Amino acid sequence: IISVSNNRTSGSFLYVSGTSTVTITAADANSIQLVEFYIDGGLNSSDSSSPYTFTWNTQAIGDGAHVLKAKAYDNANNSRETATFNVIVDNGAPESVVITSPINNTYVTGTVTIVAAVADSVSVQKVDFFNGTTLIGSDTSAPFTINWASAGESVQQLLATAYDEINNALNSSLVTVTVDRTAPLVPTIVS
């Protein structure tokens, strides 16, 4: 298997989504009669003309790990298989992303640690943290956190956006915090 379109490599994994084109090269001293394409051991498609390709609708198979291979036949019906090719299908955005700290409608001051809890059926690539539309920063490993230097005296809205390995994204609900950097007035004893 030479290539799979519509993919992203992360570490040693190839992630695919949507409709991908799988391309095979095959050669014989005489000619190639047919190339068969297999997904998870089951025959999926075949092609009798070079370049040998098949269009794969990954949404029909479900998210998770899958194994691709091809088998080429020459005119004498001799055959040879490719090595297996492992891919991870990821068509859906993360299932959830929630800012767990600070909690909604609280007062904050100074440096605040923002924490996001994220769930995805495959893998989370990163979480971006925002104050309004301004990117505070990103974290690429759980637990997903960022330190934010709150400033001023105002109401701010925090947002987290989680990305899976194929860049499907999901936004958290907004968390509203009030930045209060002013100490209270000096108390006065009245009696």
Structural class: mainly beta
Tally of contiguous helical segments: 0
Quote the average pLDDT. 91
For the largest beta-sheet, the strand count, sense and barrel status come to:
7 strands, mixed
**Which percent band covers the strand fraction?**
over 45%
Counted beta strands: 19
One letter per element, helices H and strands E, the order comes to EEEEEEEEEEEEEEEEEEE
Q: How widely separated are the two ends?
A: 87 Å
Poorly predicted tracts of residues: none
Task: Report Rg.
Answer: 26 Å
Helical percent range? under 10%
Shape call: rod-shaped
Topology:
Layout lengths: L2 E2 L2 E4 L2 E4 L2 E6 L7 E8 L2 E6 L4 E6 L6 E11 L4 E3 L3 E5 L6 E6 L4 E3 L2 E9 L4 E8 L2 E6 L4 E6 L5 E10 L4 E3 L3 E5 L12
Parallel strand pairs: 3-10, 12-19
Antiparallel strand pairs: 1-4, 2-3, 4-7, 5-6, 5-8, 8-9, 8-10, 11-13, 13-16, 14-15, 14-17, 17-18, 17-19
Question: Mind explaining what this structure looks like?
Answer:
With 191 residues, the chain is mainly β. It is 0% helix and 58% strand. It is built from no helices and 19 strands. The strands form four sheets. Strands 2, 3, 5, 6, 8, 9 and 10 form a seven-stranded mixed beta sheet that branches. Strands 12, 14, 15, 17, 18 and 19 form a six-stranded mixed beta sheet that branches. Strands 1-4-7 form a three-stranded antiparallel beta sheet, with no helix packed on it. A hairpin with a 2-residue loop joins β14 and β15. The radius of gyration is 26 Å and the shape is rod-shaped. 25% of the residues are buried.
